[in-house]
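Friendly challenge for the regulars: who can give me the structure tokens for this chain first? No prize, just bragging rights.
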Amino acid sequence: MKTSILIATISIFLFACGDNLREQANKSKVLNVEKVDSAVADSLARVKAYEDSIYFAGPMVAIVTSKGTMKFKLYDKTPKHRDNFLELAAAGFYEGHKFHRVIKDFMIQGGDPNSKDNDPRDDGLGGPGYKIPAEFVPRLIHKRGALAAAREGDGINPKMESSGSQFYIVDGKKYDLNDPILSKFSLPKEERSIYHTIGGTPMLDRSYTVFGEILSGFDVLESIAGTKTKAHPLDPKSLSVPVKPITIIRVDIIGADTTQIIK
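First reply, four minutes later:
Bragging rights claimed.
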């Protein structure tokens, strides 16, 4: 509550200050209206950055893989998924799992305990034995580097509940602003801009829970996404199984006492 009041106060101050500066600029031969407007715009941008830092806040984790390390932020806006991922990570659940499904320009998927063996036929079917209620939050979208929860299809999972452990990281691609995909989903201007400049998988928004985003290690993501793949034994048309296994060595929780996280 204090945060929202603070933001509102800063915003009101900036707008009032901006109007005062413009009035002075119109009366003065020294001040320049264009420079004043630029200063106000810069101040408003700082406020937005501050608001965003709160909206997208959360703890950090590092997924250490055989290809390198990726660092992520887990959103506080999706507390069920955040806490579940932290608990599994603290318990060492993900150690030895493989990225069992890799599709270039789409995503890389892991978190299935069935992937710890060398038989890919049941990969994608395992988990800890429970699901997590969906947490769809505005502005938490499938941009490149988004961390999201895998789930079963709508036919057997109408509530769109997430797998208890399986996750994917968006590789995605960039879209032209006039691309029919962006028009089809009636995306806000800001989101369209993100898919144009950063890329992602907009067709998954509001259907799968996004609960984090990559902070560093984009090169690792790209290396995994670009790995050579082969057909899945039960689906020959799906070239999604890495020829050379890519393993999750561990998931580290950054700056936290893991003994306080494990229930």
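Residues 1-16 have pLDDT under 50 and may be disordered. The radius of gyration is 22 Å. Your move, everyone else.
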